[in-house]
Amino acid sequence: MNCLLFCLQLQNAIVLQRPESYANTALALTATRQQVFTTARGARTGVPHIAIVVTSGRSVSTSQAAAAAAAARRSGIEIYAVAYISGGTPNMREIELIATNATNHILTLGDARGTPAVVSTALLDSLCQ
Questions:
Q1: Which domain CATH number covers 7?
Q2: How far is CA 11 from CA 17, 29, 96, 103, in A?
């Protein structure tokens, strides 16, 4: 798949919603590992398994989110974290624990409103280098 097509598909897939309370990031990462990246769902050996987590970094439990992210990485999933402000400053420590690499796997956005195009373009730059 070329990068432009990927960018368009990513932009169409991103739906940013602010949770009413703390997010259960650990549960989401565990479900992604156990239910999304499976051979039954089309996951293949030798093809990158990439998860993109859009978060304020304020989940129910930072330690559980970090453990679920570590389990996902051990299973071969590369995690990009998109940090956004949702009524306050993102918890960058939690976001760093989720991302595969804190140096080049984190994108920070100023606001969650109207950002799918920004997210997809920035991720395209990171993923398609």
A1: 3.40.50.410
A2: 14, 21, 23, 23
Whether residue 112 is contained in a domain is answered as yes
Q: Is residue 40 part of a domain?
A: no
**Helices 116-127 and 3-13 sit at what angle, rounded to 10 degrees?**
150
Q: How many domains, the chain?
A: 1
Per-residue pLDDT tens digits for 28-40: 899 999 998 888 8
pLDDT in tens, 39-56: 888 888 888 888 888 887
User: Rounded to two decimals, what is the model's pTM?
Assistant: 0.73
Which amino acid belongs to residue 89? T
**Do residues 74 and 98 touch, judged by C-beta distance below 8 A?**
no
